[in-house]
């Protein structure tokens, strides 16, 4: 019994020793969002960089290697796209990307070689600036008597991705639609009464910004041509049969 206990303790000690010797940290994934044109820094969170020999950042087929001992930074040929827009902090190994572009989105993998070995993944998303959504009115293809008193509206946004388009009545959400991939056009309909005095707005947003367009019912909403005249004629015919 005693020997078995010693074996268990010895096994546990060896595992702990190997853990500290190899220093394998779990591969973390950190999500980072930034607006196009802004700078972003991917932090290593390392305070004692002297423990490491090399720091390597990888983005697809692009890599940057920083030799901590010699303080030399080397780039792969494919890093040309980041010329003058990327730098490594010699004190921490952190990576800064300046004047970001939407094409810079993706996974940036950090590996620091030494004791302990460190690996992190940064999932970076660069969002293009949002333009205010556009509100237009239209005549439904099939008109009913009720449509005479209602205004058909469409809120639209062009060439957007990773956004949500929403209609609000005051501060209350009425409807919304989301898109993850790049979309040529995104639209959301709404019907309101011509005499409606409430405040309506259409909002487009992504995780880092939003734009709002307020509805002016009196400016946008007009009766569809021919609808009122047709209904008036029908009512007159019923009231005064030949």
TrEMBL record:
Pfam families: V-set (PF07686). This is Ig-like domain-containing protein. Residues 132-218 form the Ig-like domain. The lineage of its organism: Eukaryota, Metazoa, Chordata, Craniata, Vertebrata. It comes from Cyprinus carpio. Coiled coil: none annotated.
């Amino acid at each position: 019994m005693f020997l078995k206990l010693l074996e268990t303790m010895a096994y546990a000690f060896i595992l702990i020793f190997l853990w500290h010797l190899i220093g394998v940290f779990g591969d973390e994934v950190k999500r980072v969002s930034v607006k196009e044109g802004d700078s972003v820094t991917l932090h290593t969170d390392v305070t004692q960089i002297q423990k490491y020999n090399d720091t390597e950042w990888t983005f697809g087929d692009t890599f940057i290697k920083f030799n901590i001992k010699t303080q030399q930074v080397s780039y792969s040929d494919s890093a040309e796209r980041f010329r003058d827009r990327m730098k490594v902090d010699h004190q921490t190994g952190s990576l800064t990307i300046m004047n970001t572009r939407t094409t810079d989105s993706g996974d940036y993998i950090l590996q620091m070689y030494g004791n302990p070995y460190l690996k992190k993944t940064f999932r970076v998303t660069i969002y293009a600036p949002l333009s205010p959504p556009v509100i237009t009115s239209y005549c439904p293809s099939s008109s009913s008597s009720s449509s005479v008193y209602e205004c058909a509206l469409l809120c639209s946004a062009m060439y957007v991705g990773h956004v949500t388009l929403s209609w609000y009545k005051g501060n209350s959400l009425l409807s919304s639609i989301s898109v993850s991939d790049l979309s040529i056009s995104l639209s959301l309909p709404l019907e309101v009464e011509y005499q409606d005095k409430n405040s309506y707005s259409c909002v487009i947003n992504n995780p880092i910004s939003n734009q709002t367009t307020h509805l002016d019912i009196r400016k946008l909403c007009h009766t569809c041509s021919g609808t009122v005249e047709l209904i008036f004629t029908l009512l007159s015919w019923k009231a005064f049969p030949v």
